[in-house]
Each structure stands twice: as structure tokens, then as C-alpha cells.
Amino acid sequence: MRMALWWVVVVALAGCGGGGAGPSDTGTPEAEADHTGPDEAKGEPRVPDGTPCDDGVPCTRDDAYHGGVCQGTPYSCPGGPCVAVACDGAGGCVVTEVLEGACFVEDTCWEDGEARPGDPCRVCNAARSQTSWSVPSCDDQDPCTADSCEEGTGCLHVPADGECEDGDPCTTGDFCSGGVCATGSEVLDCDDGNPCTVDSCEPGQGCVHREDPAEACNDDNPCTQEGCTPETACTHAPVAGFCDDQDPCTLGDFCADGVCVKGRGVPDCDDHNECTEDSCRQGVGCIHVRLQGPCDDGVSCTGNDQCLGGVCVGQKTLLCPFCEYHANPDANKAVVLEIGASGHPGDGLDLDDDSSTCAPSTDCSGGVDNELGLLAPFVNPGLQGAVQQGILTYVVEFEDFTVDGAPFRLHFLASDLAPSNAGCDFQKEECDYYPLWEALDASCNPIVSFDNAVVTDGRITAGGLGYTFALQASLIGGGHLEIAVLNARFDAEVTVSQAGAIRTMDGFLGGGVDKADLLAAVAQLPPDLFYPMDLAQVLNLLDQLIVNDLDTDLDGAPDAASVAIRFRTIPADIVPRL
Questions:
Q1: Domain limit, last residue, from 129, 159, 179
Q2: Residue 485 to residue 232: CA distance in whole angstroms
Q3: CA angle, corner 161, sides to 155 and 163, nearest 5?
Q4: Are residues 70 and 169 in the same domain?
Q5: CA angle 538, 290, 549 (to 5 degrees)
Q6: Backbone angles phi, psi at 329, to 5 degrees
Q7: Which of 55, 212, 385, 511 is surrounded by the most beta carbons within 10 Å?
Q8: 535-545 vs 515-523: helix crossing angle, rounded to 10
Q9: What is the per-residue DSSP string for 309-327?
Q10: Are residues 175 and 41 located together in one domain of the fold?
Q11: Last residue of one domain, picked from the residues 72, 99, 126
Q12: What does the DSSP assignment read for 501-534?
């Protein structure tokens, strides 16, 4: 409320001369106030009209004699919106009071908190001064800022260093960082010196001392009972009963004289799998070492049953019934299949979930495990050549596919191009395929299948501990490679159509391969595949270079060499065999 005009008028009035210098009043002129001059009856001369005088009335001006009487012209002093005004007895006006909650500065009224135009660092603060500008308080109550007022800008809060309090009584040494109070690294010491209490610091509360001798005096011995008195401190009395000596290969452990004694019982480690040798390893527990050799898969129409990756796998014969596999348009065909060339990111996966390890040790980083990347120069030309010429065709089928994060089935099917589209460009176009005889078991189910596939955030993952991928590949140059990828894991980026179908995948199939099984499989390949090296040299070189770096049976010892097989896919359709 800036009202300056009325004050200009008042000042103008003050310049017009004034009445006498009597005491000021409320601004209302007195009526008929005059003073007579000399007494003519006594012979005193009459004062000429117009002679200046003082009529003694504060709210008159231009006082002069008229007809022998001293009198002035009455005037008033109107109040402003924030001030009370009175006549000053000299023909002018004077401010006698500034109203509460306002300022009168530079002949203008200002509301409390109002800033001087163009100058935010000058404000009306009626509680501080009603007649002069005040500097605003810029204190934001934050100890981590330096507060000031900059002319033309206003309040500034610049981050500052120093100590502060983060509001958590359990931390000490809190400090300012970037204008924010950061939690200190030191923890409040709540030890009360009483051995019978559990001392802790509760956020927002501070030190708490809970009387609990069982916890305060716990010696982690199941064969003792804890007690405590402040005078004698902790006690540990022996007790009887069963206990656990932490050796998974003993059962019936019991307490004697405060010590856990091994029991005489042993666990049953039989997994009822003829392709594993079962035993109990001290400190580890049951282990199941994979075996090689003949077995019986329990299917009457299969023959030449062999243990492969700890599983009995038989080859179907003509005694097995004809298998009519269902049609499914939700599928992809692999157009790239090759072993990652190294153990660096982009060439494999972190198969042991340990970023501090990688393989092969001479060419790896970032936790990537791909020991068999050493085979890439030997195997990849024949492997990718077989894919490009249609000799090796893998179709990935998605059963009950969903993108909502729920699990679905993922099948890997060795397949052939359907005769109905024999001219289809299988490396570029969406073609029809049917699964090969050996891709299905005697019950017409896919031999290689993951039941835990999920798609989240543009990635598809499947497999893991306990899943096996039986890789069977015919190679350009001759030969058939058959190896079991243990604890097989599938991880790839995917693109999904608006209709909710996977269009492409780009990623890796990884896991562990038993070194002995691998050397046996390589030994069955044609010798000229490795020209100019002979097969014996290759086997000797692999035996020296490749080391087992994965513990696939979780017995604490590496038993398989890591491998990462890169794949890239395009859309495909599965159709029944005609």
C-alpha cells in the first residue's frame, strides 16, 4: 500500500507559512480563535491590517491582523493509510504514529514483508523498524548452507562445509556434503558395561539396553545353557540333548560335558540314478559324481543307452511309435551358433555368479566364464558353416508364451526345413520347420526343454542349476559333436511384436562341460577336421589348456569347463511332419 501523493500535499501546505508555535493537536482547527491587538480606547495605536502575527491556534496558517484582530486561515492534516498525522503549529503537518504491521519509509506506506521495488534486500519489517528499511532474514535453518542476501537477487543459500546433525542418534560425525547433512561413519557406542544386557542403538531412539542373558552370553554352543549376574558375569552350564556338529555326513549328534559329539548315523545319499556315483563328503554332504558308460533309460524302444551329463539317454529305434508333433507359430530359428571367442563381456556369461572370477584365465575379464572359448578357432568355422548350409538347424519353441513375467516352457528342437517351403531362405525369412526324430523322446516330448523361462524388461532367461542341454551338432567337414552342457543357462535380449510374439533373440546359452566327456567327444571327430594339426596333437593341446572352472554338482570342487554358445534368431513356424 504505497500512498505518497497525500504526503506531497501535506508538504505543500507546510510551505505556505503557518500559525503560531503553540502545542500541536489532533489536526482539527479551533473555531473563532483570535487575539486582539492594542486597546484603542486607551489611546494605543491600531496595528495595520496584514501585519503577521500568531493567533495561538496550531491548525491555522497565514496568521495576520485584520481589523485589529490576529487570526489565521484554518487547515487540516488528513491521516494516511498507515499513519496518524497532526498539525505542527508552524503551518505544516507531522506524523505522530505509524500503524501496527506497517512501515512508513521514503514518504510511502509499505505492508509488513513488502520489499523495496528492485531491491529484495530491503524490506518492511514492522517488528524491527517502522520508519526505515530492514535487511531480510535469509536463515533457512539449514546448517549445511551459508545464507546471505544479494542485491538485485535476494536470499542465497550456498552449500557449506561443517558439522551437522542428521537426526539419527545412532550416528556420530555427521557432516555437510553438497548442502545436505550426510550420515557420519562412526556408530554410537552403547556399551553400558553390564555383561547381562544386549546393547544396541535403535534409529530415532538411541541406546537401548535389553536384559537378555541368553543372548548377551551366547557362546554359540548348543550344549551349554547361558546365565548371567552382574557380579559373576556370564556362565555356561553343560546341558544334555541332541546337537549338530555341522558335519552333514553325521546324524544323531549329541551333547556330552558341554561338547557336541558326532553321532553314528549317516545320511542316505542314494539319488536312485545309475548315472551318478553317490557318497557323502565331509563338510559338504551328499555328492553325486556323474558317470560314463551304458545304462538303461527304462524305455523299451530305445537302444544304446548311455550316461550323458548324469542322465541316461537312449537312442530311439524303429520300435518307437511314430511321433506327430504339434504345430506352433511361436518359434524362432537360430541363424548364428558359435562358441564365444574369449572370456570378455560380449563373449559369454557370468556362470558362477562371481564377478571376481573369469575364464580362460589368459583371456578374460568382467566375471565372464568361457573356458571353452579356446575351442572357438577349431569349432566355429564348421559349426557356423553347418548352420548357414542348413545341416545344423535348431528351432526354439515358446510354449504358453507370456510377457507378464510368468514362467513358460522353452524347447530346443533339432529340425529340418519343411518340404512345403523347400525354397524358403532359412537364414533370412520366416520358414516352416518340423522337429527331427532324435529331438523328441519316445513319448514325443522335447529332449531339451526349460520349464522356467521368463521375459522381463526385454530379456529372456531360462535354465540354471539342474538343467542340462544335450548339444548334438553335425559339422561341415564331417563328424558329429555330442556334448552335455550342465547347469545350462539361457540369457538373451528379445524383441516382441505388438501381437505378443517373440520376433528375435540375441544372447548366449552357457553352462559347464565335463572335460573328460569333451575330450571323448572330440576324439570321435574326423582327424582332417583339425588340419594341419593331427587329432592326437589337438587332444593333447586341449588337455593341457582346458581346466575345469565350474562346480556344477556343488561339492566344493570344480568339475566342468565353462562354455558360452552365442546364438541369434529370426521368426519361424513349427508344422507337423507330412
A1: 179
A2: 62
A3: 110
A4: no
A5: 55
A6: -80, -10
A7: 511
A8: 170
A9: TTEEEEEE-TTSPP--PPP
A10: no
A11: 99
A12: -EEEEEEEEEEEE-HHHHHHHHHTS-GGGGTTS-
The reply to whether 66 and 165 lie within a common domain is no
One domain for residues 519 and 409: yes
Q: Which residue in 462, 556, 411, 466 sits closest to 276, CA to CA?
A: 466
Question: In terms of domains, do 36 and 158 share one?
Answer: no
Q: Walk along the chain (578 residues) and give the pLDDT tens digit of each residue.
A: 444 433 433 333 333 444 443 334 444 444 344 455 555 556 667 889 889 998 888 899 888 999 889 999 898 888 788 988 889 878 888 888 888 989 999 888 999 989 999 889 999 999 999 999 998 888 988 999 999 998 888 899 999 999 998 888 998 889 999 899 998 888 889 998 888 899 999 988 899 999 888 888 999 899 999 988 877 788 899 999 999 999 999 999 999 999 999 999 999 999 999 999 999 988 888 888 888 889 999 999 998 898 887 888 888 888 988 888 888 888 999 999 999 999 999 999 999 999 999 999 999 999 999 999 988 988 898 889 989 999 889 999 999 998 888 999 999 999 999 999 999 999 999 999 999 888 888 888 898 899 999 999 999 999 998 888 877 655 555 666 677 899 999 999 999 998 889 999 999 999 999 888 888 888 877 777 666 778 888 888 888 888 999 998 887 889 999 999 999 999 999 998 76
What whole-number distance in Å separates Cα of residue 155 and Cα of residue 140?
A: 10
**Residue 63 is part of which domain span?**
5-99
Q: How many domains does the chain have?
A: 3
CA 166: distance to chain centroid? 23
- Cβ-Cβ contacts under 8 Å for 359 (sequence gap 6 or more): 343, 368, 369, 370, 371, 547, 549, 561, 562
Cell numbers found for residue 335:
541363424
* Residue 220 falls inside a structural domain: no
Question: 387: Cβ–Cβ under 8 A, 6 or more apart, which residues?
Answer: 334, 335, 336, 337, 393
**Is there a domain that residue 244 lies in?**
no
Say if 133 falls within a structural domain. no
Q: Are 381 and 392 in contact (CB under 8 A)?
A: no
One domain for residues 365 and 502: yes
Q: Is 60 part of any domain?
A: yes
For residues 26 and 154, membership in a common domain is answered with no
Closest Cα to residue 32, out of 14, 49, 57? 57
Does residue 471 share a domain with residue 338?
yes
All 3 cell numbers of residue 250? 553325521
